[in-house]
Amino acid sequence: MSFLRDTPKWGQDKDILQRSSRNMREPSSSDWAEFYREAPKDQILTKDSVTVSVDGVVYYRVQNATLAVANITNADSATRLLAQTTLRNVLGTKNLSQILSDREEIAHNMQATLDDATDDWGIKVERVEIKDVKLPVQLQRAMAAEAEASREARAKVIAAEGEMNASRALKEASMVITESPAALQLRYLQTLTTIAAEKNSTIVFPLPIDMLQGIMTAKH
């Protein structure tokens, strides 16, 4: 987990701090600057027994320098340790799917917990960010295979629904044509128009049986 700290500008607490520590010095401009500190990523076991590597960032500042010196030996180190412990405890109660989908909510809950716990140290935790969650390689492959199988299953369902809708439409069309001889003749003419548009050298005209029967009857 990484930490970003705001070193406070000393005000009225300066004299108290000088009396409480012989090594206290006047703050320089570097004492007021922000600095960034990194730590190794934490290996955390989730509620569903998955080991994940988590990298987070805690933004905090010392808002009461007197408490930071009087109530804790090393406020910076203590805050870092508390943040790492809180991260493990919170994520240990979550399933992997919750960690991946609810990062913002988890980070907000951690911020509230840390801010309350560090209040007696004069520390103000501004916010917490869960920047990265890395899964084991084997789990990544398994999840990718599962996602691919799910996509293929959905594609098959969509194709089956399309076939069913097409079959239903064909059935309804055949019923209409069967009930209406005029509709059958219209369909026949449409088919002839389509064939003629192909510009083939030889065209075979299909004729309905009832038309052929009419021609044969007329000959006799």
Automatic annotation (TrEMBL):
Give positions of region: Disordered. 1-29
Q: Where is the composition biased (Polar residues)?
A: 18-29
Residue spans with biased composition (Basic and acidic residues)?
Answer: 1-17
- SMART domains annotated for this entry? PHB
Q: SUPFAM superfamilies attached here?
A: Band 7/SPFH domain
Indicate the segments forming the Band domain, all copies: 11-147
Subcellular location(s) per record: Membrane
> An example Gene Ontology cellular component term from the record?
plasma membrane
- Would the keyword Membrane turn up in this protein's UniProt record? yes
InterPro entries, per the entry: Band-7_stomatin-like (IPR043202), Band_7 (IPR001107), Band_7/SPFH_dom_sf (IPR036013), Band_7/stomatin-like_CS (IPR018080), Stomatin_HflK_fam (IPR001972)
Keywords assigned by UniProt?
Membrane
- Name the chain's protein: Stomatin
Question: Encoded by which gene?
Answer: STOM
